[in-house]
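Retro notes, structure queue

What went well: the backlog is down to a handful. What didn't: a couple of records were mislabeled last round, so from now on we paste the full input next to the output in the thread. Example, using Rieske 2Fe-2S family protein from Breoghania corrubedonensis:
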Amino acid sequence: MTVHPTVEELLQRREQGHSLEAPLYTRADVFDLDMDVIFRRHWIFVGVEPDVPEPGDCMTVEVGASSVLILRGEDMQIHAFHNVCRHRGARLVTAEKATIGNIVCRYHGWTYGETGALLFAEHMGPEFDTSCHGLKPVHLRTLAGLIFICLAAEAPDDFDRMAETIAPYIGPHDIANSKVAYSYDLIEEGNWKLTMENNRECYHCAGNHPELTIPLQAYGFGFAPDELDAFHRADAASYEGAQASASARWTEMGLPSAEREELLNATGFRAERLVLSGAGESHTLDTRRACGKLMADFTQADLGALSFWTQPNSWHHFMADHAVTFMVMPLAPNRTLVRTKWLVHKDAAEGRDYDLENLIRVWTATNQQDADLVALTHGGVSEPAYEPGPYSRFTEGLVEKFCQWYVARMSRHLLDAALRMPAGAPVAAE
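Corresponding output:
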């Protein structure tokens, strides 16, 4: 009989600087634990404030078996609840986006206010206490227009650390006063960790992303200096000089650009503003702005691209003319949702200020290319011949930090669980 290693054993024997063992990508019990430990107990990115711009606007987000209802109230505050009626469990809102007044369950008419309080429940009798049957809240925080939720009873307490560090970077782009120009869901045929690892490096960019490498220079994501010939050394030096010059100019404008990285925190994050090629304005094929009306109160378009990464499930790019956000949500051990949103100034008009195809071309192409690579990799790690391979210390450092974060968070949970269990009780799934 084949004895499979426990999740705890797989985590303990992970070799630093190498990819994970196959079962951590492929096994169903690992996936279930990922959903419980990572996606139910950490702050996860789910959307942007422009998803719910006006009072009564709401959206639903599916996190594994949980449906979360996110609603903008009359006070303009955003609230999050489990999307489950407290009567007999019916889903309250079934659309991804809607505009509602009170929250009314279509099954028996139980009615909730914007704070989740139960306002009306017919035929329940005079002794029924409505105050005991409000919607179950979900932790929600916003960061400069980005929406994060946590399904745990107690959320990690370091969100403020991320917010204080990153708000000065994202804030000038005024995301709250933008609008969603386009939203696109792509299902990748691979494990969510492979999706995240693929995003955390640009080692693969030159040979796989012809559109993205027009505005985005791979030098910004690392290179091996000893492997460069004279031409490429001069090219790298030119890039570093351009980055230094642009950073000085951006700093004078009140736009932080220096790398800030705390990827190993419970709420891990990283941000950096990088110079773009050519005109230096946007992620477009001609490197010029895609939207004529700039975001916020910007008067210059050549502000490079601010990149912001969070553990465990997002990355974002903010430019002077538009922003692009990415949410990763696991669906199965071998299926992952990547939801991409393009944001422009709320007063920008399609056909006048921007051409939608031009706005989304670079990242729709890049997303599909990445999805193909993730599928190739998942197929490979599923084969008996697979064994963890070494990362490049020059270009895959952020992949290593993602794996370190994942192993640390999972290991801490299993240790805490072991300390709570009676002696002899099983700790990890087989």
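Agreed that this is the format going forward. Reviewer comment attached to the example: The two ends are 13 Å apart (CA to CA).
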